[in-house]
Design a protein that fits this description.
The chain is an alpha/beta fold. The protein is built from 6 helices and 4 strands; from the N terminus they run αβαβααβαβα. β1, α2 (22-42) and β2 form a beta-alpha-beta unit.
C-alpha cells in the first residue's frame, strides 16, 4: 500500500505509560513517539496518546480520566499497534479488549517497521471503498 492510500487510516499506538519512576514514564513516552513517527512517515494517520497527555499529571486528573479518553480514541481508530511490554499495562489490556470487541485489526510492534506495515496494510486493505 502506498503512503497516500495509508493516510485515510487512523492507527492508535498502544503501550505502557505509567512506570515506577519518572524516567521510566519518559522512556515509555519516547518509545511510543518513536513508533508513531515511523507510522506517520509511512503515511498512516496516527493517534499517540502518550504524546497527547504526557505531563498532564500536574493537573491532578485521576487515571480513569485518561483511560476513558483512550477508550474513546480506540473506538474512533481503524487499527491498533501494540508496543512491546503492552501486556504489563492495565490500560493497554483495556485498549486491546475494546479493539477486539469492535473487530479492529491489532498488530504487535516488534521493532521491524516493514513487518508491521505489511500486517497493517493487509489487515486494512479493502477496509474503505475507493469512493471514501
Amino acid at each position: 500500500m502506498e503512503a497516500a492510500e495509508r493516510r485515510k487510516f487512523v492507527v492508535y499506538v498502544a503501550g505502557p505509560y505509567r512506570a515506577p519512576t519518572w524516567g521510566g514514564v519518559k522512556k515509555n513516552v519516547a518509545d511510543a513517539m518513536d513508533v508513531a513517527a515511523e507510522l506517520l512517515r509511512a503515511g498512516y494517520t496516527v493517534i499517540c496518546p502518550h504524546s497527547m497527555t504526557h505531563g498532564f499529571e500536574m493537573y491532578g486528573l485521576h487515571d480513569d480520566v485518561f483511560l476513558h479518553n483512550d477508550m474513546q480514541l480506540v473506538r474512533r481508530c481503524d487499527a491498533l499497534v501494540m508496543l512491546p511490554n503492552w501486556k504489563t499495562s492495565r490500560g493497554c489490556w483495556d485498549e486491546y479488549n475494546m479493539a477486539r470487541w469492535l473487530g479492529k485489526p491489532i498488530v504487535c510492534w516488534h521493532g521491524d517497521l516493514s513487518n508491521t506495515l505489511a500486517h497493517l496494510d493487509l489487515a486494512l486493505e479493502g477496509f474503505y471503498s475507493d469512493d471514501e
